[in-house]
Amino acid sequence: MAETDTQLQRPQRADARRNRDALVAAAREVFTAEGGSAPLEDVAARAGVGVGTLYRHFPNRRALLEAVYRDEVEAMARSADELAEVDPWEALSRWFHQYVGFAATKRALAEALLESAPDSDALVACRTMLADAGTRLVGRAQEAGAVRRDVEFVDIGRIVGGIAVSPGADDEQKERMLQLVLDGLRPPRA
Questions:
Q1: Which of 19, 50, 101, 102 has its CA 20 to 30 A from that of 80?
Q2: What angle do CA 107, 109, 32 make, to 5 degrees?
Q3: Would residue 73 count as lying in a domain?
Q4: Does 190 fall in a domain?
Q5: CATH code where residue 56 lies
Q6: Are 72 and 27 in contact (CB under 8 A)?
Q7: Is residue 148 part of a domain?
Q8: What is the mean pLDDT of residues 60-67?
């Protein structure tokens, strides 16, 4: 991770930045379709660059996996911030619907990262970023009286993550399960 952090801090030429962005986008597609162990040559080819360019940006598979995963987590965190002006309950509901899709498609990436470095700084940072975003949304909904006071994001996040990766569950069933969870978050009626 230190290598990619250094690269992100150092200004890059426009073409180098385009190549890096193309590699991350291509890796996202390849890893989603083929898993985290897909050949890096496939990633380079899909990005339209040579393998040498890939390795200049990402010295190893783990660095590329981390970049893709971090990019996705940052998008989830940004989406929580973008919902700041939306009704607190609606914001929480929308974000968890998005979270189901995120968790389902990023499972292979997370597993590949956990296998190679379960305590990596990148994974810790990503977990923290997601937890902070979710905690803000849950807290806002609690302050508005829309969510029970006895729940925490970590509880909901684990349940929703489990729904996302439920074996044999189709999208319709996942939607029903998520709705049950969301209904259970409401405060009891007097």
A1: 19
A2: 80
A3: yes
A4: no
A5: 1.10.357.10
A6: no
A7: yes
A8: 90
